[in-house]
Specification:
heterodimer; A: 380 residues; alpha+beta; Cytochrome-c3 Hydrogenase, chain B; 13 helices; B: 351 residues; mainly alpha; globular
């Protein structure tokens, strides 16, 4: 039943063809798709096709109480949920002018770094899986699970802790928790040589990841790249140091950088950041017992809390890059508008589209995982 | 034992015409090889899942039967009952024929395999050529599967696999040329017999580069990690068999594992002395020859699994570069070396 004026479209002879990469694809994290135009194995054009995980978080938040959104925000990024809670709480505290007790701030730092460890283990494990080496992924998942055990002990939740509330944290640190965390850190540190042998110094992996998905520092800055991906281009920028929040200004840590800007550098940066996170956590374990005081400041009845008129834009360093919340309050018991500035929406859409061009089909998944892009956060 | 069975069959049922008996006898022999081979394949998949599981900090299958021993059987039953989905735009005959083309050669090559000095189905003169010819046939199954599926992913996988297998066959063939230059025979049994007398007489030592090249090519031939770009899971999903389901998929799966065992067995025969014991004296010679053969094959097959757990996948262009620019030159040089040593020095290689 074709219309009368139908004419079959004539295609000029060509070696190009289009391939739908995703949304249900083992090499892609979450549901995310690409339309790839290929010539043989070479990618001529990649078009990101997001939206399969769209859950409308920003709109949902406008319909819920300030405190209810705490349970919603960690869902935005599954592998690294804690920075979401902390950043959202920071935004409310800034608007409402709450003074967070020092002990709560240290506990938040501890949580953030534990989450970073877990997310990085997941990230390079996933990267290994895109190259067909599932062993690193399983090791990463197994070691991440030990961190989740500590999360469970601390917060009651393994993945989504829903532990931060505006003004502090919900519960104090359990007895003996810090010792157990310390032994976990020792264990993770002792595992790193194994990861090196298996993965980071594996010649096949290095050959596959070097000079793949290269971006220069200028490009990275132009495209809004942040976090480990930016540090992999040689620029030591870290929100924790350059715009300190919580108590990061009292903590000693280095900002690892790598010059290459390719998949390999991004992974090596993550590997070094594991060590830095362990170092930060050790300082927290050392300092936290001496910091006495409440774990949260008093807040009004959260179910009838009219946060004063105002707006704020706090930013934190999540494992994937700079994460920020733009929160506007019109004085009601619900946020007027929340905007999430997630790192992955830059990394997974515009950066990935550009880096994929000129690479090979095999490397698309690798580039995506090396950018540590998180599709649920892209769609929000 | 074999002779006794043969006599029993031909004397007890001599009222049948002779061709019936010959046919029955041949069928028996085929079953006697294929049935244990299928069991070996099934339990090789179990071994793979279990071993890789332990390497990956997990336990592998442990629910079906004691310690998961029945897992391969459960898998086989499950696959048998699954629907065979034929894509509507595919070529039905080619689509269903491809798995057969894949498994046929993988099983037929076992016909000339000498398990021990005497236990061989067909002791033909040029059995090495026969094996080479049949293993080259396997690529047709893959190409036709990829083509007939009418799917871009399958097509990409098939094209990659075709190019890869053909280039690695060259390196493999050259490696085998070295073996036959030293052994002076194309018959697998005689190649093994030429390696008699302890492990330092096996060909892996004098032909070490060829041994390595042959095994790497063998891994590439069977599309196994780190050369599994034909089915590269995170790239082209499952490659050439992405559209296959149920038994048709299972046949590809069987062919892949049968091929792995075949390559392991060939490596044993050509480079590791086949059924020859490790040392040629008392405690080692007591172990029956077949167990030496099976044990060595299992050790080589283990390497396939080990590779899979510890190596990332090569990129396709890197695979081609490795094949053409490293493996083939190495074999060529070593063949020249063998030739010179064999004809211009007084001792030759193995005397």
């Amino acid at each position: 039943m074709r219309p009368e004026n139908y004419e079959a479209r004539k295609h000029p002879p060509s070696n190009e063809f289009e391939l739908n990469f995703g949304p249900n694809h083992p090499g892609i994290e979450g549901n995310y798709a690409f339309k790839v135009k290929l010539n043989g194995d070479e990618v001529l054009e990649a078009k990101a096709d997001a939206g399969y995980l769209h859950r409308g978080f920003e709109k949902l938040m406008e319909g819920r109480l300030w405190i209810q959104n705490i349970a919603l925000v960690p869902r935005i990024c599954v592998p690294d949920p804690v920075p979401m809670e902390v950043c959202y709480s920071l935004a409310i505290e800034e608007i409402a002018g709450l003074e967070v007790p020092e002990r709560a701030q240290w506990i938040r730092v501890m949580q953030l770094e534990m989450s970073r460890l877990a997310a990085h283990l997941f990230a390079f494990g996933g990267h290994a899986a895109t190259c067909g080496m599932y062993t690193t992924m399983f090791w990463g998942v197994a070691d991440r699970d030990l961190i989740l055990d500590r999360f469970e002990e601390l917060t009651g939740g393994r993945v989504y802790s829903i532990y931060n509330i505006p003004g502090g944290v919900r519960r104090d640190v359990p007895t003996g928790f810090l010792e157990r965390l310390g032994s976990l850190l020792d264990y993770l540190e002792s595992r790193l040589p194994d990861y090196d042998n298996l993965f980071f110094t594996n010649q096949i992996f290095i050959r596959r990841a070097r000079d793949v998905g290269v971006m220069s520092q200028e490009q990275a800055l132009k495209w809004g790249v942040t976090g480990p991906n930016l540090r992999a281009t040689g620029l030591a920028f870290d929100v924790r140091r350059d715009d300190p929040y919580l108590v990061y200004d009292q903590i000693d840590f280095d900002i690892p950088t790598e010059p290459g800007g390719d998949c390999l550098s991004r992974n090596l940066v993550r590997r070094s950041e594991l060590l830095q996170s362990i170092r930060i956590l050790r300082q927290v374990i050392e300092r936290l017992p001496s910091i006495k005081g409440p774990i949260r400041c008093p807040i009004p009845n959260p179910l009838a809390w009219n946060v004063p008129v105002g707006e704020s834009y706090p930013r934190v360093e999540s494992s994937k890059g700079e994460l920020a919340y733009y929160v506007v309050s019109n004085g009601g018991d619900k946020p007027y508008r929340v905007h999430v500035r997630g790192p992955s929406s830059m990394h997974a859409v515009q950066v990935l589209e550009k880096l994929a061009v000129g690479s090979r089909l095999e490397d698309i998944a690798q580039i995506m995982f090396s950018l540590d892009a998180c599709p649920p956060e892209v769609d929000r | 034992m074999v002779d006794w069975l043969h006599n029993w069959l031909f004397s007890t049922f001599d009222f049948f015409p002779e061709w019936v008996l010959v046919f029955t006898w041949t069928l028996w022999k085929i079953i006697a090889i294929v049935a244990p081979l299928m069991v070996a394949v099934a339990y090789f998949t179990y071994a793979e899942r279990k071993l890789i599981g332990y390497m990956q900090d997990r336990v592998g299958p442990n629910r079906v039967g004691p310690k998961g021993w029945l897992q391969p059987i459960a898998d086989a039953v499950k696959l048998m009952f699954k629907e065979i989905i034929i894509p509507s735009k595919s070529n039905k005959y080619l689509f269903l024929g491809a798995p057969l083309l894949s498994i046929g050669p993988a099983l037929a090559a076992w016909a000339v395999m000498p398990f021990t000095d005497t236990l061989v189905l067909a002791n033909i003169d040029a059995s090495l050529l026969f094996v080479l010819a049949l293993t080259s046939m396997g690529v047709y199954g893959i190409i036709i599967a990829g083509w007939a599926s009418n799917s871009k992913y399958a097509f990409l996988g098939a094209m990659r696999s075709a190019a890869q297998i053909i280039s690695y066959e060259i390196a493999m063939g050259f490696a085998l040329v070295g073996v036959l230059m030293v052994a002076g025979s194309l018959n697998l049994r005689e190649i093994v017999l030429a390696q008699a007398g302890g492990f330092w007489h096996w060909y892996w030592l004098p032909l070490f580069p060829l041994f390595v090249v042959y095994f790497i090519s063998g891994v590439a031939e069977t599309n196994r990690a780190p050369f599994d770009v034909a089915e590269g899971e995170s790239e082209i999903v499952a490659g050439f068999h992405v559209e296959y389901s149920g038994m048709t998929f299972a046949v590809f799966f069987l062919a892949e594992y049968a091929n792995m065992i075949l390559i392991a067995a060939l490596t044993t025969l050509l480079f590791l002395g086949g059924w020859q014991p490790l040392f040629d004296f008392a405690p080692f010679t007591i172990i029956p020859a077949f167990f030496w053969f099976a044990g060595k094959t299992a050790c080589v097959a283990f390497l396939f699994l080990w590779f899979r757990a510890t190596f990332p996948r090569y990129r396709y262009d890197q695979i081609m570069r490795l094949g053409w620019k490293i493996l083939i030159p190495v074999t060529l040089v070593w063949i020249a070396v063998i030739g010179i040593v064999r004809f211009y020095t007084p001792f030759g290689f193995m005397g």
